[in-house]
Each structure stands twice: as structure tokens, then as C-alpha cells.
Request: fold
Amino acid sequence: MILLDGKKTSKDIKEEIAIEVAKMKANGKKAPHLAAILVGTDGASMTYVSAKVKACEQIGFVSTLIDLPVETTEEKLLQEIEKLNKSTEVDGFIVQLPLPKHIDEQKVLEAVDVDKDVDGFHPTNVGRMALDLPCFLPATPYGILELLERYNIETSGKNVVVMGRSHIVGRPMSILMSQKRKAGDATVTLVHSRTKDLKSITQQADIIIVAIGISEFLKGDMVKEGVVIIDVGITRLPDATKKSGFRLAGDVDFKSVSKKASHITPVPGGVGPMTIAMLLKNTLLARERHSVNS
Ligand code: L34
Reply:
């Protein structure tokens, strides 16, 4: 069994980006600038956003964190987005999800300038992705493609089962894996909460990408020998023996599934760090595009 080490791979990618940034600076160009908007104090969101800011510092990016209170109105958030859209300093920005219930998420994502949408969540970027046009790929699916590529996992003609139809992971992942690309050309099945006879489908899979948000759902008896497993889930489960009071669990029952898998991502240290690395990659691409004009 080979562990698909997202921590190590993300470190490699960050080092590659840092070299590009150093070159930009040596040529008198501005370093990429990423901004992140965080609304509220959700523990997991705070962890992820601070990891993004820290990663920017590591590789020589400029970063701005816009920390807004949970009671922020939709109007105020849209004003902040407009400021970032207009800023000549910021190359790309994200609005960390989930947002508080009183804010219309779709309206917010549509307010982001398509050329600064380094999360790739704007409908224009999603549409461009589906049509194989140049776009910002959403960071988590992009990270999974990169992990599969860097570990030379053959996907062409393979049965790929994507579990979950979220806009952030399952839906884009199913589209990307079916496209003509290195980590692509697969025969994709997307399964969800209404799927019948799930086990018989997952047992046929050569590669399973699990993004359902139900901890330890996929068990050893649901997969075949030699399967490749990508676990996108990350749930905080209460654990009194931990200083933090919780432990992290994926959507995959690692103990039973890893016995049969040829390759598997751990949680933590799998897909999570790859998400951050690819967000940085998108921001570098945004800077390169903007620097054509400035
Ligand atoms: N707008 N919202 C927007 N963009 C995103 O790309 C995200 N996502 C998801 C949640 N909301 C978002 C993230 O950033 C999930 N996500 C994310 C990012 C990083 C990590 C996990 C999820 C990560 O670094 N995970 C570590 C463990 C971190 C911990 O200690 O909790 C890992 O090793 O998996």
C-alpha cells in the first residue's frame, strides 16, 4: 500500500512556486497577492484560512486577511468584494465557505471578478471548466488531479467512482476525470445519497474519490483489491484524549480500506494540503495574467 502524501507533494509544489516568485522579484515584478475573506469564527474555517495565509508567507506571496464578524450583512460583504475586484494590488481572492445562513452564497460567488476568482467558483469559471476552456480550476479537484499525476496513477479507461455531488468537489471532479487530460480519460460514475445498490458500484471501481462529509463511511467490504482511494472528507470528531478536544476523520474507514488499497490518501496530510498548494498555484497564474497589462 502506497500512501499518497499530500503534505510532501504540497511542499514540493510550494517550493516550485517559491522559485517562480523569486524570479519575478529578481526581474523587478510584483509578487502575487492573495486576499481571503473570512466571515465569522468557525473553528475549521479559521484553521484553513490561517494555513492559506501562512503558506503565502512561506513562498513570498503578499497576503491580506479580511476578517469579518458573523453578523456581517450580505450588503457589507458584497462591498468588500467590490473593493477587492477594483484593487490594483490584489491578484486573486477567495471568500471562505461556508458563509453564515443569512448570506446568499451564490450571490456572493457571482460577485467575484472572474479574473480574480482563484477558487474557480464563479459560474463563468465552472462553465469554462466544463467546456475545456482556460479557467481557474477549483483548488480541491485541481489538487486531486495533481496528486494522481505526480504519483503516476493511470486513469485512462479506468472506472472512477466519485462519491458526492457538491459544487466544490464531487461535481467538478466528475467532469474533470472524464475529460481528455493526463489525470482524466476515465469512465466516471457519480454516486450520491439516492444511489441504489451503492456497494455493487463501489466494488467495481479502480479509483474512488470520496467527498460526502460522512466520517468513515466507506468500508473495506465496499472496495476491491488494488483500488486507489482519494479521501476528501475532513470531520472533527469529539475526542477527550486530545488537547484540542477533537480528532480529524476522513470519509473513509482507513483501517479496513487501506488493507485492500494500492494507494490511499491519509486524513490529515492528504487532500487538505493539496487544496492550499493549488490555491497558491491559481494565484500565481492570476498574477502572470495580470502582469501582461502591468
Ligand atoms: N472558498 N471555501 C473556499 N475555498 C476552499 O478551497 C475551501 N476549502 C474547503 C472549505 N471551504 C472552502 C478549503 O480550503 C476545505 N478546505 C480545506 C483547506 C485546507 C485543509 C482542509 C480543508 C487542510 O489543510 N487540512 C489539513 C488539516 C487541517 C486541520 O488541522 O484541521 C490536512 O492535513 O488535511
User: Anything to note?
Assistant: Residues 234 and 268 are 8 Å apart (CA to CA). The pocket of L34 is lined by residues 47-48, 51, 94-97, 119, 139-140, 234, 248, 267-269, 272-273, 275-276 (CB under 6 Å). The chain is about 40% helix and 15% strand.
